[in-house]
Design a protein that fits this description.
205 residues; Connexin_N_sf; Connexin_N; 3-stranded antiparallel β-sheet; Gap junction epsilon-1 protein; de novo design (two linked rop proteins); membrane; transmembrane; 71% helix; 6% strand; mainly alpha
Amino acid sequence: MSPNYMRSFSEGCLRPPTVIGQFHTLFFGSVRMFFLGVLGFAVYGNEALHFSCDPDKREVNLFCYNQFRPITPQVFWALQLVIVLVPGAFFHLYAACKSIKQEDILQKSFYSSFYVFSVFLRVILEAVAFWLQIQLFGFKVNAIYMCDMGAFEKKFNISRCMVPEHFEKTIFLIAMYTFTVITVVLCVAEIFEISCRRLGFLKTQ
């Protein structure tokens, strides 16, 4: 791919054709990624090391932690961010290969419909991630986790495990839910903005 295509692709990703899309990019790229990258590591970085169970043995702690965290929240949210970016990246890659200017996206029906589809797909992916987060992490992190030890060692049926910094993790969970909701609202608002521009209620950029 030529440098011109790469430049068009990067400009399309960083400067979408709508005002709300540009705000979404700013929110997504700065606030959400910064929150996950910096604060997420601070809250969850040493969780496995401080996760202790009764009896406090390394193999017991490891077994129960794997049961408590089938996937670590940082990995889940990082995958969510990457997957959600795919539809928009695919559209802007297509636009770069076809040499489509940003101002033409909202003026031509096919391009605007394709772009709306990518935004709508982003909403679906965010909704699926929201549901998976509920299934995996819930809305609250309890201080005590009851670990089922039946598959590990029969003489220990249930092991009580201490979850470190459970209150901070609860706050972080709520924040990530809030970010997902904000992103979905911005995507819906962007679709509404495009519809208004197509109908002539708003001037095109």
